Amino acid sequence: MTKAPFRVLVTGAAGQIGYSIVLQIAKGDVFGPDQPVVLVMLDIPPMAAVLEGVQMELIDCALPTLAGVEGVTNEEQAFKDIDFAFLVGAMPRREGMERKDLLAANVKIFKSQGRSLANFAKPTVKVLVVGNPANTNALVCAKYAAGKVPLRNFSAMTRLDHNRATAQIALHANVPVANVKNVIIWGNHSSTQFPDARHAKVVKGTIPLWPPTWF
Ligand SMILES: NC(=O)c1ccc[n+]([C@@H]2O[C@H](COP(=O)([O-])OP(=O)(O)OC[C@H]3O[C@@H](n4cnc5c(N)ncnc54)[C@H](O)[C@@H]3O)[C@@H](O)[C@H]2O)c1
């Protein structure tokens, strides 16, 4: 491969979501089959041994797109010269908690990571915040990276809400998901979100099927 590798950071790489996305990034599903990546995985020090296990598994895969894999537990090393960041590491919701209940714990993490983006990452870095509440964490992170990394380089992964609503409509209408379009989610990525199915377009074969009587 002739292209220079991207340095791609995944935080919380020893956790459930991190573990499931590192392989997709490493094997070319995200940046393409001809784009090498150096995967940098950050987690907290108590997870160092798990991180090492993930690192060994990725090495064992012998993936042509994986130009290197690093497991680290300090932010300076993790954010150094990165081109892309998937900020997954956060405290997950426990039973009975809403996404917004995580705010106090997670604001600290995203403040610190915003500063690390500003101090150590390439100024062109693109950031996807996954840790919940994702949109609020993205705002916090962008605020602390301001002046170095432009606001437009930050995204929050709220698409899950859209996908859930689309999948539910498809199930109820008994059509493939591909036949459901124009579902909108309004509000915050927490309990004030409002799935708007009124403007949905659903077809069975070529026949429009929306709104149904049960809507
Ligand atoms: N936006 C979405 O659509 C979406 C979907 C699923 C999960 N999530 C969120 O993603 C986050 C991770 O979920 P999970 O199921 O993988 O949780 P998990 O508990 O399995 O993993 C979280 C990992 O983050 C690590 N971590 C904690 N603080 C860290 C820090 N300061 N720096 C680096 N790593 C740190 C933990 O040690 C752990 O390994 C949660 O906030 C969850 O709510 C978001």
From TrEMBL:
SUPFAM superfamilies: LDH C-terminal domain-like (SSF56327), NAD(P)-binding Rossmann-fold domains (SSF51735). Pfam families: Ldh_1_C, Ldh_1_N. Residues 7-146 form the Lactate/malate dehydrogenase N-terminal domain. It is an enzyme of class 1 (oxidoreductase). It comes from Acrobeloides nanus. Its EC number is 1.1.1.37. One of its GO terms (biological process) is tricarboxylic acid cycle. It comes from the Eukaryota. Residues 158-202 form the Lactate/malate dehydrogenase C-terminal domain. PANTHER family: MALATE DEHYDROGENASE (PTHR23382). Belongs to the LDH/MDH superfamily. MDH type 2 family. Keywords: NAD, Oxidoreductase, Tricarboxylic acid cycle. This is Malate dehydrogenase. It catalyses: (S)-malate + NAD(+) = oxaloacetate + NADH + H(+). PROSITE patterns: MDH. GO terms for molecular function: L-malate dehydrogenase (NAD+) activity.
